[in-house]
Specification:
alpha/beta, four-stranded mixed beta sheet, 21 helices, 8 strands, 51% helix
């Protein structure tokens, strides 16, 4: 079984481990696989680059279908083999909404883990600062308290009583935390969760082999302890303070958003595509700190936008909201997930790849906002600019080679819903259309799509062009 699947992977990599757990859960043993060494740079070998031009692991292929992003591979496997093995996305709308929400919060969880444990690997020695290490650890502690609170409220699994795709995505991060010495006494619910899932057959079967050879890992997180952020109280808040009203369709939905934010725009496009106009909504001002208001915190304890709610279902992660809307209102408006397996895999792949583009844009545009003056380096600015340039070239290549005119083929899909806001932001900052003609053609053609025109950021209408930060990219 699964002999037409190939997985190139690295031991101890949470993204690789996610795919391996998903394969085990779907009873897809016997796939072709090869363990590669990060230390020996085997993830940059031609074998990997032929499947994954980023030179990253995992690299996963099913027949002619490639899904290298771990979330893409997991969604693809659950979609294509839904009736085989264990069901990983529940049928109940409330449970499904929570699975999506936790999965995409897991991206932030993983990022904050890597910012601490891989700091010396990511940051050149001359750019390292004790103040940055301290700030990263404080951010991780805040994140850990959120997840401790989630499990305390709902457990024993990440989305409630049953094991789901949320656990597939998040357990490898939790496993890594305890590998690096996180204290189960300081985080008892996370400790219980780790102990419970360690014994699950899919997790045991895919346990990183070098962890078996050397059970005692680094203790770099043993001093990560509680801080006085009262996160648990935020998790039990109600949204009764949000007094927004609409007499029209979708009146049981509420969206708090910020103009020009790609994550907010994604949700707005999805709502338009599904013909869900008339929802309760309020535009908030990032510059005035309104995203940290009680109104937002009651819906989203992270104090981030978007903050989205449908009835009692809260989906603050933009990807979670988009997937939920498509599933819940599949027969309404425009279909956003293709039937064709190859197109569906491509959609998932591009959807999750744009997380990398988004992060590189954030690193570039918000460097001076994110990094205190005493920690800034010209070498870091140069490296960040080069990384963004390389990323933009990848996306230009995708559109040059793809079946087009959309990101996953001939039809507009969720890939376009989530990627277009980032492409539009690039051109708002005057990315050169002559240098990137395929991206420019994509940007200009979708500008006229009704869902995009209807949700175009109002601040962009008032000020059509931003500073030319990308002119020289």
């Amino acid at each position: 079984m699964a002999e037409n699947m190939t997985l190139l992977w690295g031991s101890g990599s949470p993204p690789c481990w996610r795919v391996m757990i998903a394969l085990e859960e779907k009873k897809l043993q016997g796939y072709n696989q090869k363990l590669l060494s990060f230390d020996n740079m085997e993830h940059k070998s031609q074998q990997v680059l032929d499947m994954n031009p980023r030179g990253q692991l995992p690299s996963f292929k099913h027949g002619d279908v490639i899904a290298n992003e771990s979330y893409a591979a997991c969604f693809y496997l659950e979609s294509q083999f839904r009736s085989q093995g264990n069901q990983l996305i529940p049928d109940d709308p409330a449970e499904r909404a929570l699975v999506y929400q936790r999965m995409f919060e897991g991206v932030t969880f993983y990022d904050k883990l890597t910012a601490v444990v891989y700091y010396d690997w990511f940051v050149p020695e001359e750019e390292r600062h004790d103040s940055a290490v301290k700030r990263n650890k404080e951010a991780l502690v805040t994140e850990l308290k959120l997840w401790e609170g989630y499990l305390q409220k709902l457990g024993p699994h990440m989305a409630g009583a049953s094991f789901s795709l949320a656990d597939v995505a998040i357990f490898p991060t939790v496993g890594t935390l305890f590998r690096y010495g996180l204290s189960a006494e300081k985080y008892p619910k996370l400790g219980e969760y780790h102990a419970l899932l360690k014994e699950r057959p899919s997790v045991k079967a895919s346990w990183p082999p070098h962890w078996l050879e050397n059970p005692n890992g680094d203790n770099g997180l043993q001093d990560i302890s509680d801080i006085s952020h009262h996160v648990a109280s935020l998790l039990t808040s109600s949204t009764s303070g949000v007094a927004l009203h609409s007499p029209t369709m979708a009146k049981d939905m509420t969206l708090l958003w910020g103009s020009g934010s790609p994550p907010c725009w994604r949700v707005q496009i999805a709502l338009e595509e599904k013909k869900l106009q008339g929802y309760n909504q309020k535009m908030l001002d990032f510059m005035k700190g309104e995203h940290k208001s009680k109104q937002v915190m009651d819906m989203n304890p992270r104090g981030q936008l978007p903050a989205f709610k449908h009835k009692d279902h809260v989906l603050n992660e933009s990807y979670a909201a988009c997937l939920y809307l498509e599933k819940q209102f599949g027969g309404q408006g425009n279909k956003l997930v293709p039937e064709c397996a190859a197109e569906q895999a491509m959609m998932y792949q591009r959807m999750f790849e744009v997380l990398t583009l988004h992060q590189k844009m954030v690193d570039f545009f918000h460097y001076e906002w994110k990094v205190p003056e005493g920690e800034r380096h010209d070498s870091a600015v140069k490296r960040i600019q080069e990384a963004l340039s390389a990323e933009i070239k990848l996306w230009e290549g995708y559109l040059s080679k793809g079946p087009g005119p959309f990101l996953a083929g001939k039809t507009f899909s969720l890939a376009d819903v989530v990627v277009y806001p980032n492409i539009a932001a690039l051109f708002r900052f005057q990315l050169c259309e002559e240098r990137y003609p395929k991206l420019a053609a994509y940007y200009n053609s979708l500008k006229e799509r009704p869902s995009i025109k209807a949700s175009w950021p109002p601040t962009w209408l008032e000020t059509p062009e931003e500073t030319g930060k990308l002119k020289d990219i």
